[in-house]
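Sequence and structure are no longer studied apart. To make this concrete, we show below a single chain and its fold as tokens.
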Amino acid sequence: MIAGSIRMPVAAAFATITAAVCLGPVFLSGSWFFPTVIGVVLVGVGCEVARRMSASRATVPLGGLVALVLYLLVRYGMDEALFGVVPWIDSIDRLGELAANGEDDINRYSAPIGVSPGIELITVGGVGLIALAVDTLAVTFRRAALAGLPLLVLYTVPTAIAPEGVNWVAFAVAGIAFLTLLLTESRERVSRWGRPMRYTAARENYRPEVETTPLSQVGRRVGATALGLALVVPAVLPDVSAGSFGFGSGGFGTGGAGDKIEVINPILKLGENLRQGEDTPVIRYAGTPTYLRLVAADEFTGDVWQPSELEVSRDDNDVEDGLTRPPGLGASVVTSNRNYRVEVFDLAQTWLPLPYPAKKVNDIDGTWLYDNSTFNVFGENSSTQQLEYRVQALSVRPTPEQLREAPKYPRSVARYLQLPRNFSPEVRQIAAQVTEGQPTSYDRALALQNWLRDRDEFTYSQTLDSSVTDGTGEQAILGFLETRRGYCVQFASTMAVMARMLDIPARVAVGFASGNANGQGYQVVGLNDAHAWPELYFQGAGWVAFEPTPDGPASAPPPWARVVAGSGTPSGGPSPDASSSSDPSTGLGGSENRPREDINQEGLNPGTGGGIGAGPVRVPVLPFLIGVGLLLLLAIPSVTRLLVRRRRWSDTDTPMAAALAAWADLQDTLVDYGYDWDRSDPPRRGAVRLAEERHLVGEPAEALHRVAAATERARYAPEMTPVGDLRADVDTVRAALSDGSSRWGRWRARLLPRSTSAVAAAASERLADGLDAIDNGVSAVTTRMRLRRT
């Protein structure tokens, strides 16, 4: 293959990069973009090198593919490279591992999603393959128009999953880049026909450049029209984005005016939720105050805590059939049953908020399944939005002695000890120092909790600045240990990681603290009650919650964690057995049970009849907007037909004008009802043919002939006399045509009249004429400037 101009490869790479900008709303940060740009450029370079080496068209894409694979190996697999510099089999395994982790993240989390190494690898590789397809179609095979198909993927992904859809500026830039690719291909295609010369009057010679002004005019007209419609049409339609269809923002966010708050991995945006000003109520429940757990994040990738893959069955894991006994809970630990009535407001969540451990969920809409090992409960095509249900849960009250004497964990929970390879030895050293001399796993857990709760050592802060960073990964933990400032996510993540280092199975639970009493027998949970805490495993007691966060939504540890490490002596506050009393403040999540004064208690009135109450009423804004938008779209043709008809009959003060208006209105009516008038027929002959074909007799036939006769007189005798009410005659013919049509034909003539296509064509011609005028003006100016230079 003969290598050509460098314009096409550059235009193809530029179109891919600008289209990739549309992916921005899918991610929480922009760290993916520059690696992606490098990947696109290297793909283009690899393909161009293959072309310059006279490779066949079929083998040119291999050059770009090799360049992309080498780039991925160097960027993501160098830690396993041979001698640290040569990518090897282990590097390929590393790419597979990262890709699997990224796929799990995509399946679990909603957009916008955090950019983990796996997510970045998939993004760079995916966009790189699209760049390869674009280069192959547009540059190698010279089919730039077909290159729009792979580029379309980069437009549709954020449209489908991002809460705000595609930003119109990004779309406009990407559209311009694609049009540039089309025009570049057209220019090179014309240049291959030959080298037509243009005579220049100012100089006695010929210009060697190819004359492409007409081609540019066509390109500008098509591009300006298409891009203009793409930007103007969405602006005049109702604002419906992917988020309107239930795709969430990936964080807690503020509800209101029908907005939904949706998270798939709540830990990703918990800090943002705590920092927002408005404490929107999201849950109300009746029962003993307790933590409401959304999900247990039991996998630690080194960058984030996340829930592991769930293994469930519709037949065996339906929460309405009852949950199994919690893992590790023995018969010697004191338990009691508690009942709750829960109402969720604007929390569109796939995880169900429940006390841990739940026994059974009743009176709930939808299908909700649970995982046997984590007790994570998620909805199968179900959401917590405006959901009410009842819960039977266990209150588990282990004593410090039982936890201290707990036997070694079984092999089945050993996976809760896993940490990434080469995790910071500094964190391990600190954990060992803090727990030095503690004889049991329980004492070491207490030592970690008490050290983190020491206000002389650590400060609770929701403010995001140089001393407090979001995240739960290794860097976030190291930063937290250095600055000693953070919020519940850092406290919980740090304790869970250190517990695993000390051979204590651990995970991070995410959900809500117990909330506050509203004075009417209910606990009200707001967005500011969002919380994270560690759960540690002790054989015989199962998963036990600890509270390392000194302040925040929940400030008091649970009863079994209120003792001094190395002893059974309470550290102040209620004794371990106090939780069995009726005092709700001693339960899990024992923050001070103060009335919630900042919530409109009238709006949360439990109502009558013993039910939970209606709660906040939300207007279904989305269906309303969609309905209005569809009605507006359907109304455009019929309204246009009505306006044209009204304007046509508004200026009929002479018999001739009335006759011409009647004839034009009749012609449009025939088009609306699917009749093809033979243009060679004069009015009278055409009227006879129409009456025969549509079986018009009586008054409709007479009205038709009157309109035809008046039209002939108007054409040949301008000084005609009045001929009656021609508008009524046209209405009579229309009614007869309607009676003779099918039901669909009648509705189509009314709602989607075919005659309005002529109006659209006329508008398009005027738009094209306007673009021609602009283009001619630009050409005149550029020509004059060129002549002055010469």
Summary: Residues 195-213, 225-264, 568-587, 589-622 have pLDDT under 50 and may be disordered. The longest strand covers residues 334-344.
